Amino acid sequence: MSLAIGREEKGYLYQQVINLIQTMSEQGTLQPGDKLPSLRILANNLSVSIPTVKQAYQALESQGKIVAREKSGYFLVAKSRNAVQPKKAKLVNKPLQVNKQGLIEQVYQAIHAPDMIPFGIANPVAVASTDKMLAKLMRKAMQQAGQRAINYGAMDGLAALKKQIVHRYLDMGVLVEQNEMVITNGAQEALAIALQCVTNPGDVVAIESPCYFGIVELVENLGLKAIEIPLCPEEGVWLSDLEQALEKHPIKACLFSTSINNPLGSCMPEHKREQLVHLLDRFQVTLIEDDVYGELHFGSERGLPAMKYAKPERVLTCASFSKTAAPSYRIGWLIAGPYAEKARRIKRALSCSSSLMNQWVLADYLASGEFDRHLKLLRQRLLTNKNKMRQVLIETFPADVLISDPQGGCVFWLDLGKHYDGTRLFHLALENGISLTPGSLFSAGQKYQNCVRLSFGIPWTAEVENAVRTLGTLVRLARKEKAV
Fold first, then answer.
1. CB 226 within 8 A of CB 248
2. Phi/psi at 437 (nearest 5 deg)?
3. Which end of the chain is more exposed for a tag (fewer CB within 10 A), N or C?
């Protein structure tokens, strides 16, 4: 009985701290940006323990109401002068040839340069590393595999891994057959195979705008033409613009991320996802869904894959473990439905098979339940990093810079305004040991010259915070020669 009372009292004291901070904020005793009382001072004033105050502060931080700064304490989140989301892009109603490889190569060189602050790479696993757990499972798998460890795996993937992935889709209410699935070398290969299943060189595909630059480069390499469909920062592609493009052009496929787009972090609501697949069915166009960030949502529930609402031949789903577990393992998958046999032939021609032992380890990881525990921690840390970086961006960047509010993933999209050049900022940042991604890469055409993408998917340190503040200074040097 006494234990139950103790827990109840602890819960009351914890809530008392939260209520006090909220009241001080509402009454103006604490102003946006003010430092909160230290853990020790507040514990003494309220006659509670320091761990109780810390737990309350961490709860407020996870809600985005306060932010921790290393070696400085906790601060009330400033009200954003620039809370306005980036503006909607205009629909350019003509297919475009793509030519972005030169700048993409510069970005990749910067990502891998030594001693660089890597805001230019979207690698969310870095904030909650899986290396120790996967190393343990690899040792066990190597012992079990014996000589098989150096053999080729099955061309279309390890059955044990496919079974675990199928179970995850069943948990979402989506029925997937194992023989419809091909294990690939990351999501990029899955997307390449999917595009080759339903298009030929010279065909027109619809992509998001802005769109992940890897997809832009893939479209270029496959000899396809792209038509860009503008994104709503909160809800994904504008269906009215998509319908207009479908009516005017012979679009063979649409390549969209309905759950957590990169770079805006938008997430299409379920009812609009259903409208999307019905619209594409009416025009007999296939959706290739890039679901690589689907597990990294900040909401209470994961967005359901679009294939839940579609006929099997209308949606091909691509995903991977690169953003959630192990980028270096290069393990992804394609759910190809009736295109499965063609997808297997293309996979065989491209790379024969994917790493057997990496698949083995990931199958064991999923079966152990550790993957889901890891995802929970990963999402929490990414949300915390998002709040911390957004606060520093608000404090240090010019007031008219527009900052996205991602609903998941690990990146911010910044619209610097018409007077600033994102590519120039990219080069200035490199000179100061900071990598970022210029916005012009996220379009098949010439859009987003005044935008950049920043990743918060790295461990947050004082050095990282100072790098964001440095960018706030450098952006003022990235003014265009002539305003447009």
1. no
2. -120, 120
3. N
Spell out where 360-450 has E strands: 402-403, 411-415, 434-435, 437-438
- Answer yes or no: are the C-beta atoms of 224 and 202 closer than 8 Å: yes
3-state secondary structure (DSSP) of residue 452: strand
* CA atoms within 13 A of residue 302's CA, in its CB half-sphere: 19
Nearest one of 88, 418, 377 to 240, comparing CA atoms: 88
Q: What are the φ and ψ backbone dihedral angles of 69, each rounded to 5 degrees?
A: -120, 130
Average of pLDDT values for 147-152?
92
| Each residue's pLDDT tens digit, 275-298 | 999 999 999 999 999 999 999 999
Task: Identify any residues that bridge with 411 across adjacent strands, giving them in sequence order.
Answer: 455
Say if strands 181-184 and 332-335 run parallel, antiparallel, or are unpaired. antiparallel
Strands 251-256, 204-209: pairing kind: parallel
What residue has token string 């906790």?
74
- What was the pLDDT predicted at 186? 97
Strand (E) positions, 112-192? 117-118, 181-184
Backbone angles phi, psi at 466, to 5 degrees: -65, -35
Q: Are 265 and 413 in contact (CB under 8 A)?
A: yes
Task: Give the SS3 label for residue 413.
Answer: strand
Q: Work out whether the CA dihedral 369, 373, 376, 378 comes out positive or negative.
A: negative
Of 87-101, 323-337, 399-413, least confident by mean pLDDT is: 87-101
User: 3-class SS at 219?
Assistant: helix
> At 253, which helix (H) or strand (E)?
strand 251-256
